[in-house]
C-alpha cells in the first residue's frame, strides 16, 4: 500500500488519521478541517509534530456536517413549462 496511507497508526478500536487523510475521509478540504479544529468543532492532538485526529471524533464531525441532497435537477424545458402552466 505504498503511497495510499490513510491511517497513521492503528490501535485496537481506535484509528488515528493525519490531517490530509482525515480531510479525505470527511470529504472536505484540509483547510476546512483546520478551520473546524481551530473553532473547536473537532479535537486533534500532536503526534510526532503533526495534527492527528481520532476516528471517533471524525465520525462525530461527519454526522454534524450538512447532508448533500442528491436529487436530480429539473431540466430547463420542464421547469419553463411548469412556470407557463
Write the layout of secondary structure elements.
Layout: E1 7-11, E2 14-18, H1 19-26, H2 30-38, E3 45-47, E4 50-54, H3 55-64, H4 76-84
Antiparallel strand pairs: 1-2, 2-4, 3-4
Helix pairs in contact: 1-2
Structural description of this entry:
With 85 residues, this protein is an alpha+beta fold. It has a domain at 7-65: Multidrug-efflux Transporter Regulator, Chain: A, Domain 2, CATH 1.10.1660. It is built from four helices and four strands. Strands 1-2-4-3 form a four-stranded antiparallel β-sheet. Strand 3 (45-47) and strand 4 form a beta hairpin. The termini are far apart. The model has no long low-confidence stretch (mean pLDDT 77).
Features:
85 residues; 42% helix; alpha+beta; Multidrug-efflux Transporter Regulator, Chain: A, Domain 2; four-stranded antiparallel β-sheet
Concise synopsis of the structure shown:
With 85 residues, the protein is α+β, with helices and mostly antiparallel strands. The protein has helices at residues 19-26, 30-38, 55-64, 76-84; strands at residues 7-11, 14-18, 45-47, 50-54.
